[in-house]
Structure formats: structure tokens, C-alpha cells
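Annotated sample (chain length 640).
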Amino acid sequence: MGKTLAYKILENHLVEGTLSPGEEITIRIDQTLTQDSTGTMVYLQLEAMEVDKVKTELSVAYIDHNTLQTGFENADDHEFIKSVARRHGVLFSKPGNGICHQLHLENYGAPGKTLLGSDSHTPTGGGLGMIAIGAGGLDVAVAMAKGTYSLTSPKVVKVQLNGELKPWVSAKDVILYVLKKLTVKGGVGKIIEYTGEGVKSLSVTDRATITNMGAELGATTSVFPSDDNTYEYLKSQGRGDAYTPMSADEDAVYDEELIVDLDQLTPLAAMPHSPDNVDAVSNIGQIKVDQVAIGSCTNSSYTDLMKVAAILKGKKVHPDVSLVISPGSSKIMAKMAENGALAAIINAGARVIENACGPCIGMGQSPKSGAVSLRTFNRNFKGRSGTLDADVYLVSPETAAISAIYGVLTDGMTSGEVLPAIDAVDFDPNDNFVVYPAGCDKCNTEVAMGPNIKPFPRNTALPETIEAKIVLHAGDNITTDDIMPSDSRLLPYRSNIPHLSNYCFEKIDSGFSARCKEAGSCAIIGGDNYGQGSSREHAALAPLYLGVKFVVAKSFARIHRSNLINSGILPLVLDCPDEYDDFKMGDVLVIENAPQQVKGDFVIVKNKETGKEYKTKPNFSELEINMVLKGGKINAIKEG
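Output written by the structure step:
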């Protein structure tokens, strides 16, 4: 029986466990990445583990999220990260260098390697044939300290690509189509592996767009084979020696299969407020557009932006549209400055902002009240743009650019415009934005701790009896943006959990924090796919600080579930989802004999008000049991 590419790479990195779906495994991690929004907490945790140098082949600390410095907070965080990176042998990418995933693709990613990142879009590296996984910050800190990562061995889904894309249809439309078919929870517990003749027609940056947004499927990761296109991309970056051909066996066996006929696709858009709410642009119609934002780790590659420049050249952005563009890296920006593409974009009336995440994570460029904003980003959750009543549509760079000219959502296939081919180019090496940990002597490097950086909260060992009041009854697909909002107002406080906790759940329930403080010991009831979205462990740390002891839900998103366990908060799945409506705000729930129950198949949760008992499934592995018993991952590591 042949092997999938995903299992070949996992097998080559297997440290412990049996490589079979559902089994717990530990793999060797070759590389890690962090970004500054989650990175401060990662490096606080790394310091708490009292290690010397990191155990990975390569670890990089990127500054790309909190680059809008309206006060000292972000700059202090950056200085802290730089100092800890120097102490432990981690490369430091300065602000302005670009977005972590684009930069890692250009400079460090390599076929067959494993990458763990404290950002949910780390699977971007799958475009190069890597097993690249997004995780909570503590998991990444442990990977740096020990060189390993534990996970449940996923199923592998084959997505067979046939044919070739038509003009005006792009890789973004491919992943939007897959999201429409599989939904935002369709990839949970799975790796999405792309195969078929259609793969050959997609460049590495096309593939990276698809693997990047595979995070919205809830998938562990996504991966493409490494082939001639991979070699050409690596060579263009001056890294041809990193190339290794890799693919699945011809007779590989998959757990599921989806066939995508590329030549049948048309321009698509994800409508408000979910990445899987997808329809054809032609069906949605020519809605008036107020803002267009092009960039993010999904669509800020050289090829993407050169297509945008070609569409805009000699034309004018519609008077009613604000067009903003953020290139993915300093290399891309420099090349576009050299070849005149940047001038074409500016002359058309576009705003060009820093090489950073920017508006994708609510760091500036919020649209006006009630606006329609077309974005080439990966998420359109309600309020993520910074404007609660804005309608955000996710589209390709081609659709975004042509719509910016016409002022309405436009299908480029019907516009009559000709989209020119973009020639491949070679990039000059430039590491002027990178600080290397030369000599990195831990004893001689002082950690720079600004006044806004506070210790992260730590849990205590699991008590015999847990009694907690229900302080929130939430619906389906609650996102980490819902739990711990991310915008220019709050991002500077990512290293200050006590301050952030005041805003926990504020977008859907402004009274949450106050109720928690009054109750002291709290429980949350959630629906399906609780905690989807970002890898930010702040969505677990803020509830921990506020006294949340457990969450009962119909199902959990992968990364958030891990973050809850890492913090010692119990994620419990209702055995009977229909009982979800039984729970009422203010009810007091009790778990008796908790240390014994978490080791079993069920945890019985009793409603103190009604006397009714509910079966919940902990689904904990042996490692997870140890963590929840000791009150989280740091405690488990410290106690051995």
C-alpha cells in the first residue's frame, strides 16, 4: 500500500507513537516561526522553561503584526523579543521586512521539513512541500526548547486538481471552492493533500495561497508535492540547493477524496461573515464597493501584486473606492520599485502601506461605517476589520483590482479586459532586515522588559471538585476574534493579559468580564466548532485569568482546544448535542471527582440548579491528561 506525501514526511520525523489516524504521535520539529502578536507570550514561556539554546535547526522571530507604534507598547514588545531571540539563538526579522509566512517561504522553507508556528496560517509552508502546522504559543515554545511537538495523527484528504485555471481565475478561487465544499470545520483532524495534473499549472506562490487559507478549513495543515515548479521558485530566491523532489506514491491510499476541475472554476467570493460562505462573483452581482484591500499572507506575493499592477496601469481607482495595498516582503517591494510596478499602482490612486499584516488583523485601514470592503485576506469574521457593521468579502487580487476600478464587485471574465502573463524574476539576496544571534551568549544578554509586559497566568492542579457558574452561552463557530478581539486598540496589550481580560468576548457580550469577576469560578457553554480561527492563546489565557474552569461545547477547533488544555482549562464535548439548550446563564455546574473522571471516557457535569447530569467526553490523550491534572503544560514540564 502506497504512502501519502504527508505520512512520508511525518514518518521521517516520527519520534514516538504509531502513525495511524487518531493515534497520538510526537514528531521532530525542524523549524519554528513566531510573530509579535503571539510572540511575546511565546518568549515569556520559553524563558520560564529555563533553556539555553533552542533545539531546532532554525527558529525565526518575525515582527509583522504590531507595527503601528502609537505608543511605547509595541516597540517594547519588539525589543523584548529581540533580546530573548539573541539569548536563545533565534533569528530576528525586523519590522518592515514583511509578513512572516511570505518571508519564510522566500528565505527558509524547504521541501520535506517540518515547521511549527505560533500563527494559524503557518500551513503556508505546505506550498513548498513542508508539513507546516499552526499551534498555540506554548506549543511553539516547547518545540524550541525540546525540538518536538505532539499531536493526534490526522487523516489525509486527497484533493485532486484536474485541468488548468482560465484567465481571471486564480489560486484564491481554488481554495474558496474547497471551502465551499468542505466548510470551515471540514478539515478538523485532517491534512489536505493536493495531487493531480492540475498541480503542475500552479506556481509555488499559487500553492501557498491555497495552503495558507486551508487554515480556514480547520485542517491540521495542507501540502503540495515538491516538483520542478518548487525548484524554479527556490532557485529564483537563490536557494536552489534547498530543493528535494517529493510526492505521494501513485498507489497512496487516502481517507477522503475531493475532485476539483480547475477549468470549470469562475471568480468566487466569500460573503460576510465566514470564509465558507462562498458564491460566484457573477451570482452575487455588482454590489457597490467602498474599500479594496490587497495583501496579507494569503495574497501578497510578487506575482499577485504584479497582476494588480498590470490591471491598474494607466487606469484610475474609482472615486468612491479607497484602495490600499500591502506588499508581502521587502524583496517584493524593492523589485516593484525597480521595475516600475509600484509607480503604476500609485499613479492609479492606490495607497501603499508597510510590508506587514496591517488591515488583515485590524491594524489600521478599518472601513467606514456600513461599508462593503473587498479584501484578498483569509478571514472575514464580523468586526475583524475594526468596523463592526462592515460587510467584508474575500476575493482574489484580480477580482479586487478590477473591482477597484469599476467601483462595483466585478467578474474579470466578463470585463473585456486582457490579463497579461507575469514573467518570473530572480530576487537578490537581502538580509539587511535580519538580526542574527551572533555568539548568542545567554549569560551576557539581558532581557528587555517594558512596563506593559506582565507575567502570563498559570493554573493550579485540578481539584477534586470543580464548581463553576455559567457566564456565557455561545453559539456555533465562535472565533478566537470573538473570544479575544484583535485590533489596533488591543493588539499593543498582547503581553498584558490582566488588561486584555477586560475585553474578553466584548464583541458578542460586553458584560462577560464583569460576570466572571463576580462569579470567581466560571464555565462557558459553546456550540459547534468553538474557537475557530487564529492560533492566539490569549483566547485561552484571558479566560484563565478571569476564572474559567471548563468549556462545554458541541465540538472544538483544533488549535483552541490545545490552547485550553495547555492552560489547564477543560474542553468537554457534549455526548448528546441536543442537550446544549438545557444550559442557562447563571446555572452552577459541578464536576465531582474530577481527577479520576478526566482519565475516563466521560466526565459527568451536574447542574446544581436542576439536579440533571450530563455526559461529556474529554477525549484526552495520556499527555493531555497529565497536563490537565497538573494545571497546564508549563506545570507538567516543570514537574516532569
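Annotation: The two ends are 39 Å apart (CA to CA).
Annotation: The mean pLDDT is 95.
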